[in-house]
């Protein structure tokens, strides 16, 4: 069915089946999923059927949601892995690659924009599986390690996680006076961005401080991504992006991939969660103490307990998520917004979004807001694909130039 016909049917009040047709014809790319933690620490197999109370992602649910490509997050807890950041990252990468080996009929390692398209065109369709390093501390201040992670398949790096590293400030601790900050990017941080441009590795500015964000845009030659960030004008989290930042990403020709976490898309939920922080942290500490005494394996993140506490709070409606997508589209432009769910890394998502299988509901809601099928396709994945291609073009240009003297 042509996009023009789909538009006409939708404007005429066509049934939900037409919205499903729009969704099924899209190449859907999720910029951020934390599933590798489950793969490594829980021995989870993506071929399993996951209860939504335990996880958001498995291959069956990905097919049901028509997910075409995903960036699996390689996140290393900086507190639990002191001195072993790179080692832990390698174990997580191995866990992803082992899943691809285990399910070659359903998954394929994607290293380029073209690989994503080819996976979609294969018969049967395969899930294009990419990886992103979440937190620049993982490279241990070594550009050689950055290159090694690229060789192993990492196609973006978030410059910081919630921790400031030796060369870039994070939004997560920017108010902590005990942390040594740099006022944004250090000179070595600028080198990191330049080398990422040369490699063709997407520069991810989710989690970074506002100063780091603007410093990065001064340095980068390629469009940036925010792999999982929402709009600060709607929800006052420092993890979200101000309207000035959204406009700067648009000027850079980048893309902001909206996070699904309830506390990032709904201020009422965020405030309620803040109010229960002391009790929740005490419960997490008590559970950790029990596990240390031999009651079970000690997880990096006790997501089960986090979910229990989040379940005490009212989930925001799906419209809250759509409001953030709509806001980014209005401020930055519809060419600069995408999806970065944070599935398997968050304890609460909006009503109706219980897993990756529910992605069609986002398409239905966007169409109901008046977005055309072509615009929806951009939001679902087309914008990220464009940015990826441009990063590859910049890389070819930089690699062809003679090295600086």
Automatic annotation (TrEMBL):
Q: What is the lineage of its organism?
A: Bacteria, Pseudomonadati, Myxococcota, Myxococcia, Myxococcales
From the Swiss-Prot or TrEMBL record, give the protein name. Answer: Dipeptidase
Q: Which GO terms describe its molecular function?
A: dipeptidase activity
Gene source species: Hyalangium rubrum
* Keyword annotations from UniProtKB, A to Z: Dipeptidase, Hydrolase, Protease
EC number from the UniProt entry: 3.4.13.19
Keyword Heme in annotation: no
User: SUPFAM superfamilies from the entry?
Assistant: Metallo-dependent hydrolases
